[in-house]
Amino acid sequence: MTTSQEATPNTPLPQGVTAGEWIADAAHTEVGFSVRHMGVSRVRGTFEESSANVNIGATIEESTVSAEINPASVHTRNEDRDNHLRSADFFDVEKFPKWNFESTAVRADGDEIEIDGDLTLHGVTRPVTLSAEFIGVTVNPYGTSALGLSATTEISRKEFGLTWNVALEAGGMMVSDKVKIELDVQLNPKA
After folding, report:
1. Buried b or exposed e, range 60-71, using 16+ CB within 10 angstroms
2. I need a labelling partner for 55 at 20 to 30 A (CA). Which of 81, 114, 151, 156 fits?
3. Cβ count near 29 (within 10 Å)
4. Statement: residue 100 has pLDDT above 90
5. Is residue 2 part of a domain?
6. Spatial CB neighbours of 14, under 8 Å, sequence gap ≥ 6
7. What are phi and psi for residue 5, nearest 5 degrees?
8. 9 vs 130, higher pLDDT
9. What global pTM score does this model have?
10. Is the distance from CB of 37 to CB of 174 less than 8 angstroms?
11. pLDDT band at 67, cuts 50/70/90?
12. Could you tell me if residue 161 is inside a domain?
């Protein structure tokens, strides 16, 4: 958030977006990630249980975001890998059953929206910046508004204490340190 001494830009909301509390529509939201495997392929996965609240202010900068992910809901299309990710080697879901994101600042940067915040996973909180794109706003056949956003960021596993790995005979490591996070979110006004 900005301090009272700093000038606060007043970026208007995109056309059709109204101020208020919006929540992620779980049926139309995907929280995904990808990571390099053995340096030659990319493993992709999703978290099937997540939630998000977005309080849209009168301007972009007055908006806030909070989100929660259940890491036990990981799905990579491979049951053995999913169980390994849930174990103490990686997510340790019994000890750390929830991951959280809380925004600290939201700002417009040209056509993109930058969302700074604190990401807590595996018991470690680190600052991250999400680069978001406003997809649009519409009204569904039932008369409810729907707002679309996509966002990406990249994190270091090691910075969050996720250090499990195996050295490869040919050199390199089994799992890369960098993890790309991709979000496709549909928001609906909170009822």
Report:
1. bbbbbbebbbbb
2. 156
3. 19
4. yes
5. no
6. 134, 137
7. -80, -20
8. 130
9. 0.89
10. yes
11. very high
12. yes
